[in-house]
């Protein structure tokens, strides 16, 4: 892929007044700000890679103009990047420019992407995973599967399942700059507490390696996939993402059922009142 200067026509000299210079220091400050706001290590690493690519494709003076991001988007598409990947590149660059106080240089228009055909794990298959984990005495994997399926955490947020969070009974999650608390169901909280007591975990992340290091994404997925093989559940359904989706779908279905029951109860109440005082009964 050619350099930015080779592939993009530079704006006329008179337009340089509205430009902003991107520096390595500005990028580092922005990445530190992301960490301070609670973004996961994986997210910060992803933004680091995208911003490094953005910096490398800027001209030698590293100036960003109003049309820079749209031109960069076209270059990425030209070199075969998918719309979804292009969106993540632009999201990183937009975030940096906002941090620099230059929203006027952002490109906020997102490209349309085709929805992923994500396999759906059923609750029967989920229970089979848990039963198999119990039979094979894979307690850590059992608890990870439950953590994803009962709290809806993302794989990058698994490190936020800490001894402190278990003690308080809720997780503090941050996504897209928004902070929210997610309750840890009582059954999972009790099992995590028992597990921590036996493992000697008094603080910090619950799911760690034998050396005490936080599990990598690949380790987490690999453990769950191995369990899926033994449980004879389709591997493509047994990922942290699919377990999280199971949590969200289950909650949505329950909320819909509760809402329907409430509507039916309300209708019955109104019918009873109508029989008692309705005008047509006068």
UniProtKB/TrEMBL annotation:
Residues 113-282 form the Tyr recombinase domain. Signal peptide: none annotated. InterPro entries: CB (IPR044068), DNA_brk_join_enz (IPR011010), Integrase-like_cat_sf (IPR013762), Integrase_catalytic (IPR002104), Integrase_recombinase_N (IPR010998), Tyrosine_recombinase_XerCD (IPR050090). It comes from the Bacteria. Keywords: DNA recombination, DNA-binding. GO terms for molecular function: DNA binding. Gene3D superfamilies: 1.10.150.130, Intergrase catalytic core. PROSITE patterns: CB, TYR_RECOMBINASE. One of its GO terms (biological process) is DNA integration. Pfam families: Phage_integrase. Residues 21-101 form the Core-binding (CB) domain. Belongs to the 'phage' integrase family. This is Integrase.
